[in-house]
């Protein structure tokens, strides 16, 4: 078991999947504000870099796992002109996502479904590309998540994972830890009222497999040509693999 799979938002005995669902339901109204604040708005550029990588396979049908409030799903459709299906554990997050899509009149191109990525009901080889933005660290079983995403991809399809990571430079790491472990939980608890959620987030970032360790999990699931690209001094990483 990966270390991050043992880290849960709350202390209750419920499994991680149930706790992650409850956490995101609770913080959904504040999520977009906190996401911008936590990343100083750089997350928009990270998504742009990831989207350009996905463009290489020119997807027609795309699955966005852990879609949250739908920002990446909307960007993927707008720039790649593909049909996007977004899934997430949290109906609270999906409610925000559906409102965004409705306001933009994109209901015919983007749809959302509450679902567990470890138990996806989609047929084998259903999608040309699968994306995950800031969600892998919330999987209860990371290897099973990759296996499911591999299964629903068409041969030649791309998986693109955008995930937060920890800087390797010690000097930068000092200030990163100060911000991630102290400032973010304090501000997050004030905005959302959920102290546990914003304590869990930086803890899960520190524990999630990174670099070659993450690529090894992808390879074990069957992906080939696996690569990692670190962004913004190592604060974010983009992982890609081909079926």
Overall average residue pLDDT: 90
Strand order of the largest sheet: 3-2-1-4-5-7-6
**Strand-pairing-aware structural class:** alpha/beta
Q: Summarize the helix and strand pattern as letters.
A: HHEHEHEEHEHHHEE
User: What's the total helix number?
Assistant: 8
Give the overall silhouette.
globular
Quaternary status: single chain
The biggest beta sheet is recorded as:
7 strands, mixed
Q: Give the N-terminus to C-terminus distance in angstroms.
A: 24 Å
Question: Strand percentage, roughly?
Answer: 15-25%
Number of strands: 7
Radius of gyration: 17 Å
Poorly predicted parts: none
Percent helix, as a range, is 40-55%
Give an overview in words.
48% of the residues lie in helices and 21% in strands. The protein is an alpha/beta fold. Strands 3-2-1-4-5-7-6 form a seven-stranded mixed β-sheet, sandwiched between helices. Strand 1 (61-65), helix 3 (71-80) and strand 2 (83-88) form a beta-alpha-beta unit. It is globular, with a radius of gyration of 17 Å. The relative contact order is 0.16.
